[in-house]
Design brief:
With 128 residues, this protein is an alpha+beta fold. The protein has five helices and seven strands, in the order αββββαββαααβ. The protein has a single domain, classed as Roll (Pnp Oxidase, Chain A). It starts with 5 loop residues before the first helix and ends with a strand. It holds the Pfam family DUF2255.
């Protein structure tokens, strides 16, 4: 399995936002969506504030592939579901969201640390 380089992880981690475009059935990319991204260890995660019913999240279910752009890093990726039973990882993701985006306040951050958003957590895996 491919892994992120140290430089990619650092660059994406420092980026305020990430643009994510999922692939359609025919292989073309959907229009990119801007979202927050967090790093936990050597892994990168995004969450859908609208949970599994969110449009962009549903788009990632088609082929589980897409393209991201953040901080100058461009990468084709595979979308993997974060293990819903791994509460420790989800707690870490919550904490990183709270720390990285704290200036937005609890009401906004609450959207990405809710149970619905936790259920729509995607791990980004580089395709090489």
């Amino acid at each position: 399995m491919a892994t992120w380089t140290s430089d990619e992880l650092t660059t994406i981690d420092y980026a305020e936002e990430l643009a994510l475009a999922s692939r359609r059935d025919d292989g073309t990319l959907r229009r990119p969506v801007t979202m927050w991204v967090v790093r936990v260890g050597d892994d990168l995660y995004v969450r859908c504030m609208n949970g599994r019913s969110g449009a962009w999240y549903r788009g990632t279910r088609t082929r589980h592939q897409g393209h991201i752009s953040a901080g100058g890093v461009e990468a084709d990726v595979t979308f993997a579901d974060a293990d819903p039973a791994d509460a420790a990882v989800h707690d870490q993701i919550d904490e990183v969201y709270r720390t990285k985006y704290r200036r937005y306040g609890g009401n906004i951050i609450g959207g990405v640390v809710s149970s619905e958003a936790r259920a729509a957590t995607i791990k980004l895996l580089p395709e090489r």
